[in-house]
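Why run this: before we spend reagent on co-expression, it is cheaper to look at a predicted model of the complex and decide which construct boundaries make sense. The entries below are exactly what would go into the expression plan.
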Amino acid sequence: MIQVRNLRKHFGDLVAVDDVSLEIQDGEAFGLLGPNGAGKTTTISMIVGTLSPDSGTVTIDGVDDPTRPALRYRIGNAPQALAIYDDLTAEENLRFFGKLYNLSGSRLSEQVDSVLETIGLTERRKDRVKTFSGGMQRRLNLGCAIIHDPPLLLFDEPTVGVDPQSRNLIFEKIEQLKKRGRTIIYTTHYMEEAQRLCDRVAIIDHGRILALDSVKALIAQHGGKAVVAADLNAIPEDSSALPAPLDGDHLRFETNRPMEDIATLARSGLDFRTLSIDQPDLESVFLNLTGRRLRD
Amino acid sequence: MSRIIAIAIKDIRILSRDFGGMFFVLIFPLIMALLFGAIFGGSGSGRSKGMKIAIPIEQTSAEKAFYDQLSKADVLQISSMPTDSARALVSAGKMVAFVKYTDTSDASLSFFGGTRPAIDVWIDPTRKAEAGYLNGLINQAYFTVVQSRMMDVTNMQASLKTQIATIDTSSLLTPDERLRTKSMLTEFNEFLGSIQATDSAFDARNDTAGVAGSEGNTDSEDYSPFRPPTVNFEEATVTSKGPRTSWEITFPQSVQWGLVGVAAAFAVSLVIERTRGTYLRLRLAPISRAHILAGKGLACFLASVTVCTVLMMIGIFVFGVRVEWPLGLVLAILSAGICFTGIMMLISVIGETEQSVGGAGWAIFLIMAMTGGGMVPLLMMPNWMLAVGAFSPIRWSITALEGAIWRGFTPAQMATPLGILVGTGLVCFTLGVFILARRES
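The model came back. Tokens follow.
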């Protein structure tokens, strides 16, 4: 279990992380969702001990010093920047990082083969990284994080700047890791990724956690109402029973129970030409909490 | 330790795959050595004018003919001098060899017999390439003289007369061979006489092609069939305390450029690790910062030593650089490797980007090279520049290498440059690590 208490870090006048506290259970997929510069990477860096906090504590599995070697064996990190060597091959990269975690001999070879298979680079194992596409490099970046099969994985924006195909593949592999019981900390500014993967999400902005809960609870608390929009084939004679005034033949209204309301309107004889329901999501949560969109 | 070695191997592998890096580490220093070596006079190798040869002042007519012919070789600069002086100059490395034609008999140049000629060559033992080339030139000169004598019918007849006279007493021939050889030489002598009597043009040609000092030989000599001259090479005892060739100056200089190339490459690579995130990943591994930097330092040290060794091997085996004290050379290379590894560490933390570290690093190294003898040889530096150069590690690295190569340093004399190199390396490395640790915190 990871416990973060009152973490604070500033760079000059900039407060990068401001009184962040959270707990992550074993086997949980935890998301840090926020725009660029929100403090996600700084928080992660302090959790893994590559950055010292100005104040606050981080405890992982009861150990309050994340730099202790015994703890490092339990952590795998895929940094946002591609932390791989361009002039080495995919296999050489994996072997090198495996050796740093004391893997050797047949155990190392097995792990390298397994990871190459996992990230879909077996065919390109002997090729230098500089010849890889951005997506392939991202996958190898992920592979180097899991070469020693750690129980705690940190993925810092792992799908930034990759093509949709690689993005899907990376995401599928992370989902597989989650199913295998790995604890995952996932930072992203793609709300759909956090929504799909994470059991709980912390919304972070300007270094502060604005909300922290399960995706469902966050949406329920901060997402607002669903928006129903419809074009009608015929305008009813009595429009006073409608949930919102008509704009020509266009009807738009907000509701907490969109399906029930649509069913009621249909039963009353309303004839829909088009119909759409815009459910609230984490984007709505962020918008409601900050007044800004995630990618502003 | 295995993880430190893994980091070192990784870094060396990356460097070896970087063509640009390898150019500055190995090719550029070699170019510098060859370029400046050529400018400062080269080795006096057989392919250039300037293979300095000494010959004796005292010469018989036959010897003079040989020496005159030898001096026609474009590649030789021949000076006549007393034997003692010549040998001293060879020992001092100022001359490639002293050539002494020891058989003074005129008949030795006869095609048909005479004493087998012998030529003694007192040569610098490190001039292996020149020795082979000089042997060829000596033989060429000898046969050219023999050929010229054969064109002089009068001398040829005189020589034949002498040889015919020695056949009867020759112990090398059987009676039957004596008879046949005597008959053949007598008929040949008569043939030459008939030509001389009827062909004035032949005489005229002989007059212009005659060889001085070929007056024939009337001494009684045992007959011997034609054999090439014996060229005896004798290695001189080298006593030089100065560089004998420019290569002995330019190769220690080129080693400095190799060291600079390695240090600059590794300093930049450390910045690249930091800016691209691989350093972060290394820091996340179950190893300390000390492990990471030790691995990086080990790689830099091994690369430095390898480059120094390769360059010096080229200097020794290809360009005849003589190493007076091999152990001193090894110590000098190891100390220089330690020094530049430390400097690499310090330079890697003077900037935050590849551009700043690369630019500032090369600027610092250039100043070190300019003041330390990396460009202008220490021998040619004015005193004030030597004083300034005392602050440059390159100065001490060159001094240590030259001390082992030609300065004839004793262990006590060598201790100063080696101590300064190792001390500088340790101080710089410690300082670099301290700055890096402070910056990370």
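Chain A touches chain B through 28 residues (CB under 8 Å). Chain A is about 35% helix and 25% strand. Bring this page to Monday's planning discussion.
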